[in-house]
Write a structure and sequence with these properties.
CATH class of the largest domain: Alpha Beta
Largest sheet: 5 strands, parallel
Number of domains: 4
Strand content: 5-15%
CATH superfamily of the largest domain: P-loop containing nucleotide triphosphate hydrolases
Shape: elongated
Radius of gyration: 39 Å
């Protein structure tokens, strides 16, 4: 069985280590001068070489043919360590050996001298997983270690290591690998493996590994194993096999937004969803890109820190996008996309949160801002100003605050108008509910009062009274009747017509028709029981009633009040 690439090409000397030059320099200097510490603490992201350097350190301090700070890899001790045939270097996975008993067993073995090597080295990986009791037991060993024992603790979560442990070890912080370092390393491995790789593959793998060399080498090994010998590894195949979200796709999506091409953005979003793209991963990449663009927009001097993991072409596109968007737009999109990412798992369809964000951004861009409570105006770019409190006081005393004052007055007038209209509506409602005498019904000349029949003219003349009476029982029915008109009588059946199919269906509902029949009987108590049916007629002319009081000015709210009735609270 062949070894996976990250094991096959694991460095055996400090000189082969890339990306952690400062740490290597300190350790080789300590080994050369004979000042090796009894405890080390390696901390940093996964896949950055912590365990690899720990093994090289264990080897070099036990090497009998050491050359300066490097192991010879030829002596018996080096060969034993390279092949894993010694019990004097012990690697412990703290994730599965968390208990105090495991550390006590370790304490017992420390007391014995090394069987072959000069030093016994204990490498504790994922050290932050140890229990409180285990940390206490380990602390005792670190306080009084035997001369032949050396501890190397590795962790990805330094904040979980007790301060008492940290203070008793030399700490080294490992950094993520730069994009160029990872690409160069992957190219070297591909050359050793004699595989052909299309341009762009290494960049995609390196970006997806997020600074972890082990992950990058694992991905490369996975791709190589799937291709037939001699065939070139294609970029499209890499994306498909690994299910990666490449930066190109994210930049394309952001490009649609920058050009206000919301239709294209939604189509693109649904296309990548249909192709099986993981939208959570896409969202993570999108947020990272938006972060970079936002920071570049704020300060170009941060370029080398923000786009160090991007190719030259990607860096150029990021800078261009930073010029297109305003700071307000970027901050708004940034927040919306974070919200969308958090809502993916609970959404009926994963693309829905993004589609909503796109539609809202479209409204934001085109000043259709009823959704935000008021119309959004184009705001100039944010400039550095004094503290908000100082600015507020200055504006109150400044003549330039006239515009703000007008806005406040207008807002107060709107609130006042809303309250007055509400009061008027309540009074109208109370007048209807407290009526003791029925309204006088005007009877047309052609009505048959002796027989108790009511003519179509009587219904039309008293249509306003019918609407008010209906409103006592159901606001929606009254609203639907407003958009209807009486047509004719067929025996005892009153025919109503409305231009809307939806209204006709609702008014013909059995429960609603019973209410309408009851209303007609209440308005025309002397008549026989009148039945109603409603038809749809697009050409019907609805009876024009007196205009309603002026409303609050929000088109959508006013339209809802017209259709469904009701009052504002």
């Amino acid at each position: 069985m062949s070894l996976v690439l990250y094991r096959k090409y694991r460095p055996k000397n400090f000189s082969e280590i890339i990306g952690q030059e400062k740490i290597v320099k300190i350790l080789t200097s300590a080994v050369s001068s004979g000042r090796v510490a009894h405890a080390y603490l390696f901390t940093g992201p996964r896949g950055t070489g912590k365990t690899t350097i720990a093994r090289i350190l264990a080897k070099v301090i036990n090497c009998t043919g050491r050359k300066g700070g490097e192991p010879c890899n030829e002596c018996a001790n080096c060969i034993a360590l390279n092949t894993g045939r010694t019990f004097d270097v012990v690697e412990i996975d703290a994730a599965s050996n968390t208990g105090v008993d495991n550390i006590r067993d370790l304490k017992e073995s420390i007391g014995f001298s090394p069987a072959l090597l000069k030093y016994k080295v204990f490498i504790i990986d994922e050290a932050h997983m140890l229990s409180k009791g285990a940390f206490n037991a380990l602390l005792k060993m670190l306080e009084e270690p035997p001369e032949h024992a050396i501890f190397i603790l590795a962790t990805t979560e330094i904040h979980k290591i007790p301060p008492t442990i940290i203070s008793r070890a030399q700490r080294f912080d490992f950094r993520k690998f730069r994009l160029d370092e990872m690409i160069e390393r992957l190219k070297e491995i591909a050359k050793q493996e004699k595989v052909k790789i299309e341009k762009g593959v290494m960049e995609v793998i390196a970006l997806s590994a997020d600074g972890g060399m082990r992950d990058a080498e694992s991905m490369l090994g996975q791709i190589i194993s799937l291709e037939a010998p001699g065939e070139e590894i294609k970029l499209a195949e890499v994306k498909m096999v690994l299910g990666l979200t490449d930066t190109e796709s994210v930049l394309k999506f952001v490009g649609f937004m920058s050009k206000n091409q919301f239709k294209e953005a939604i189509i693109f979003l649904n296309d990548i969803t249909f192709e099986g793209q993981d939208l959570e991963q896409f969202a993570g990449s999108l947020i990272d890109i938006l972060r970079k663009i936002t920071i570049l927009k704020t300060n170009r001097d941060l370029k080398k820190y923000v786009i160090s993991d991007s190719t030259e072409e990607q860096a150029e596109r990021l800078l261009k996008l930073a010029d297109v968007f305003s700071e307000q737009e970027l901050l708004w999109i940034f927040k919306k996309m974070i919200t969308a990412k958090n809502e993916i798992k609970s959404a009926v369809l994963p693309q829905i949160p993004f589609e909503i964000a796109l539609i809202e951004y479209d409204m934001f861009k085109n000043n259709r801002g009823a959704l935000f409570g008021k119309k959004i105006e184009n705001v100039p770019e944010i400039k550095k100003e004094p503290k908000a409190e100082v600015v507020a006081k200055k504006k109150l005393n400044d003549s330039d605050s006239e515009l703000k004052t007008k806005e406040i007055i207008q807002a107060k007038e709107t609130v006042k108008e809303k309250k007055m209209w509400k009061t008027e509506k309540i009074q109208q409602k109370n007048e209807v509910e407290t009526e003791k005498e029925p309204e006088i019904i005007e009877v047309a000349e052609n009505s048959d009062t002796e027989s108790g029949r009511v003519g179509i003219e009587e219904v039309k003349a008293n249509w306003n009274q019918i609407l008010r009476t209906a409103k006592k029982y159901n606001h929606s029915i009254s609203a639907f009747l407003k958009l209807s008109a009486p047509q004719e009588f067929k025996k005892d059946m009153l025919m109503l017509a409305t231009p809307y199919k939806f209204h006709a269906e609702k008014l013909n509902d059995s429960s609603n028709r019973k209410i309408i029949d009851k209303v007609l009987l209440e308005v025309f108590p002397a008549s026989k029981n009148i039945k109603v049916t409603v038809i749809q007629d697009e050409n019907v002319k609805v009876v024009k009633l007196p205009e309603a009081p002026k409303k609050i000015g929000d088109e959508r709210v006013d339209a809802a009040l017209d259709v469904f009735g009701g009052e504002l609270e």
